[in-house]
Amino acid sequence: MWLIARREMAAYGSLPSFWIALLLGPVLMLLTGLIGAYGASRTEAPAAAQTVLIRAADPALGSAVIAAIADANRRAPPQLRVLTPAQAATPDTVLVVSAKPGSALEVLVQGRPIPPMAAAQLEKELLTGLRRQALREAGASQQALDAADAVHVQVVTAKAPVRKMSPAAAEQISRFAIVMLLWMNLVGALGMLLQAIVRERANRALDSLLASARSTEIIFGKLLGVGILSVVVLAAWLGAGAAIAVSRFGAAQPGLEALLLGAFTNPSTLIQAGAVYLVAFAMYGSALIGLGAVAKDLPAAQNLSRPIFGVLLLVFFVALTQMTGAVGPMPWLIWLPPFTPFAILMSPPGATPVGEVIAALVLMLATTVVIAGAASMALTETPLRWRKKRRDASANSRLRYP
Asked: What is the pLDDT of residues 41-94, one digit of tens each?
């Protein structure tokens, strides 16, 4: 069994695609951490105030613009900082203020444009001040001026209430991230296992193995070899997630990255994930070995294995609905062996009694033993049936053509 396992490890471990898959998860997680840290630094950095220099022939107009900018800063950020002529080495914006015939005032913006909201607020404040000045010059009484100032118009945009995510929902998202990693690794490992058995079936190397090893040794040898490789990949992925989660990248800023990596900081969750992965790989892998033993070539094996991968796809979408809360809790999924490992991982800590978890895993192991027994029979009897068919065909040909 160990010789067969070493043979599979050497066959797949020498392929560049294996090492690419091994490094793909850590590299993607590192890039995600760097992008999250960069976005957090950009979010945390306050926007610098835009510097403005005012040039006005009339000092009264310049003072009116300065007062209007001060009022606009209180009502419509971002801030505009007015510079004095002594500070005007390199201003962002220059406002040239000039009075036009017909009681018109023009403010020409040179350089960096001021924000549209700030420009609109500046126009509004200047218009209000100039109208008050025009009323005063026209002889309006102080009572009339106070009455005009008492009239205000305010447009308020109602903000939608921000829904805060509950800690339970955040934990479900992080647990689903681990389930997704396990699912991706499991699908890849099962594909390797199916190719291994079909390749030897097609080139008749399996017949030589059956002549020197028992069928159970072949099954568990292949499961052990491919399983060790897949565990190495899974350990690299989970280890990279845990390392980034506890680093300054993972704690840079609460957000999607923090939600996805939340469960990676819990060692018990990672150990649980590795344990249920081993059981899931043994069960699904035994089924694929049995199907690969029946198939004559890779296309036939792929067609026969479609139901297995269809069940895995269904498991993924069920876990996705559990994460989004689209359906209510389904604790009974833990008793269905194809769903057992993923249902255990998606269950919040303490939600399922330990006794039920152990009983569900025992049921899954029993199912694995049954499937492995069926695969052993398929592995042993299929070559015998093929030899019998060849002998019958040879005998029939001799009878027809003596």
From this structure: 555 445 567 788 888 877 777 787 887 778 777 765 657 788 877 766 678 888
Distances (CA, A) of 32 to 26, 255, 330: 10, 12, 32
Q: Which parts of the chain register pLDDT below 50? A: 44-45, 155-158, 252, 384, 386-387, 399, 401-402
A 10 A CB-CB count for 297 gives: 11
Q: Which residue has the tokens 């291994």?
A: 196
Distance from C-alpha of 276 to C-alpha of 362, rounded to nearest angstrom: 12
Which two tokens mark 276? 């249920």
3-state class (DSSP) for residue 89: coil
pLDDT for 393:
53
Q: Which two tokens stand for residue 261?
A: 């990596």
200 CB neighbour count, 10 Å cutoff:
19
> The tokens of 168 are what?
């339970």
| 293/299 Cα distance (integer angstroms) | 13
55: DSSP letter: E
The DSSP secondary-structure symbol of 111 reads E
Cα 274 to its chain centre, rounded Å, is 20
